[in-house]
Amino acid sequence: MTTAVSVSARRAVSTDRRLQIAIVVLCVLGLLDAGYLTYVHYAGVKVLCVASGGCETVQASKYAELAGVPVAVLGLIGYVLILASVAVRGELARAAGFAIALVGFGFSAYLTYRELFTIHAICQWCVASAVLMTGLVVLTGVRFLREPAGEYS
Amino acid sequence: MASRTKQKEEARARRLAEERARTARVRQQRRLRMVTGVVLGALAVVAVAIAVSSGGGGGGATGLETGTKLAQTQTTVNNLLSGIPQSGTTLGNPNAPVTMYYYGDLQCPTCRAFTLDGGFGQFVSNEVKAGKVKVQYRAFQTATKDPSTFQTQQVAALAAGKQNKFWNFTELFYRQQGEEGTSYVNDKYLTGIAQQIPGLDLATWRSARNDGTLAAQVSNDVSAGNSAGVNGTPTLIFQGPRKTATPSSVVPSYSDLQQALAQVQ
Fold first, then answer.
1. With CB atoms 3.0 to 4.6 Å apart as the test, which of A71, A76, B16, B208 could cross-link to A34 if both were Cys?
2. A32 touches chain B (CB under 8 A)
């Protein structure tokens, strides 16, 4: 009995570990992406655009800022907070990580809608961030909703 | 005896199972409340963010102005363009050694920003007025959603150009752009802009709007832009006697424009 519990607890711990690593990886990619867009915003240089050149249109549109704050900066803050939530133990931190990812995901979905239907231009940097946020909301969600390891042992 | 012990054990096991089930239920309810709280909280934050993003801001694009605000805009545009020759879509000395090709979309907010916050005004007042460079506008669809609206609005500007008031129309339009993505450009709006241009004959302007050559000119502009590799507006191409140059910033400042001019002179 005892061995069975400890084995399952260990397995649960390692699943949590894997989730943490995946979240960290996505956050780091997100930080690079949002960091680049923040740099572009303040340096006033043109965005490196692989696709049809919609990045400038998107960056120059009014949706690139929220109450005067560039959305790239908001993304940067979001990724930092999710990263921080992984570093802290406990259910509250997991809930916070999930909540921030959910906000990031919701706002990214709205921005993607604006890109497609209002601005009519797509910026692959923003799409990349939206994809990362989608991954993060799934990972932090799973991590939050799973029965926390060790609570039964 | 044995059966009584067994019964006791069974009863205990039942109690234990019930207790465990109750604890599990309570824990589940707590988690459910927490999940609901997190999801609702996140939704509320997103809703506020969307409301802030969708409403207002954006440099106060509001459409046709009236009253003192309109009077100010008209004065600014008249002062900017007075004393500078215009011919069709060309602003400035026709014999200027350098031409700045300006690819624009009248509904493009970045073009508005170039006029309001960028270096365009100062450049017109100095370099263009001095005859060092002329500006030639070319239509290129970016921000305007509907291709037929794009065609209509650009032709309306070219129709003002028939009376050599193209730049008055364009500058007034940029300064009174509506909310991006809304269909504010209609006949009433375009006529409203035309009426603000001092000395424009409205009847002539109206009939010029049906001129097929102007529609063809818009298509030619777009083709020229495509073959020049234009992929956004405003795109500025400085054409000098030997070289061409393009400012690298999205909304070029006055010094960006001066640099580009110096490169091709």
1. A76
2. no
